[in-house]
Every structure is written in C-alpha cells, then in structure tokens.
Input
Amino acid sequence: MQLIDTHVHVNFDVFQEDLESVSARWQSAGIKKLIHSCVHPEEFESIRQLCAKFPELYCAIGLHPLDVDKWQGEKTYHQILEIAQSYPKVVAIGEMGLDFYKDDQKELQKEVLWQQLEIAQKLNKPIIIHCRDAASVLQDILYKFNQEKGKITGVMHCWAGNPEETQGFLDLGMYISFSGIVTFKNAKTVQASAAIVPMDRLLVETDCPFLAPVPYRGKRNEPSYVVHVAEKIAQIKNQSLETIARETSINACKLFNI
Output
C-alpha cells in the first residue's frame, strides 16, 4: 500500500532535531510522495534544500493569507513566479487563500489571492487553498476568476467546511483534502463533508506539524500519521484502506502532475 501526503511543513523548527527519523517512519509507512507547502517565499530556500535531500518530496511556492502584510506588490509577485518557473519540483502555487478567522485585512487578502491565482494560471499549475471562515467569499472569487480569466483547479487543503460549502468547491472543480481533523470525535460536520466528496476528487494530508490525528491528537504531527486520516476516510466511505490509498494517490498524481 502506498499513500501521498499532500500537505506538509517539515522545514519547521520542530523537525530540526529528528527529521531523519521522521523520514524513515514515513518511508516505512508507505508514504511514497509528499507535497511541501510554503507560507512565504522567504522560506523557500529551506524547502528547496529538503526537496534535494528527499527525492519523494515535491513543493509549492506562495504566500499564506495570514502573511499578506508581507506582500510587496510586484516584487513578491515576480519572486513567486520566478521560483515556480525555475525549480522543477514546484508542482503548485500556494498555500494561498482567505482567513477571516484570524485576520481582518479582507480586501488585502482578496487582492493577494487574485495575484497568485494569476500566477498559477500563467504557469498552468494547480493552487493550494487555505480557507477559514471565508467559504462564500472564496467561492465568489474563484467563480469570477474562472469566468474572467479561465478555468483553474487545485485543492481545498485541511478542509473543515460543511457539506454545502464542500459541494460549492466541488462544483468549481476543486479537489478536497482532509487532515487529522476528520478523525476527531466531535468533527461530525467534517465527516459529513468527507462522505459527499467523490472518490476522484479526494485527497489526504497531515498539515504536519499541526493537527495530529487520533490516536496522536495533541502531539506533533508527522507524515507517517496520514495513514490514520486515510483509515478514517475509508470508514466513512465504507471502503477498504487500500482503495482509499490507491484512489487518493491517483488523484494527487493527476492534480500535481507527479
């Protein structure tokens, strides 16, 4: 059995002391490919070094919505564009998106998101979307972009929205990725969303080091734990773990062209 963890942050300091052991565990668990997300272009050099060290690691480049105050207009735009063009292991633009839960710079967030959508379309790369308390606004932006600029696709990462919101993003052509949240006992809404996602749009992730799944909840998360996410999805969909692993891996390879 093989799995793909479609969202990791293994460049964070919490992995500095034991990343070799962490990588040995993800290899033992059958995690054959991983997508390393990026929250700010300035961290990309550390991500690039990890991608060079671990052949199974691919990456994205972008600016997180909670870092929009670091957006420097054309400078950041061209920085993201040039890195994405010059490094072959960049398979997506992001993570980008909207977060109205922790930040109220709504107009700036929307502008920075739109700029990154344009980069992704220009390079024909998928997007990695972070969305919190902003589903309807984000859907409107993606719909407008599709109408004015052309179709774009990507993934709603670490998705925690309700089924209605989930269907809205599915209708826009997005993939939906579930993290350890789906394993939490009280995550009934997320589990209901997982139940309606078609098998050909489903992805799994850890978002490590955050949101470790049951039975590791509250501890540092790591890529090998994505197995527990896949197990819960299998239970929700009344499928075997092997089926979920196969289908989500096919989807990840298709979306990220890996």
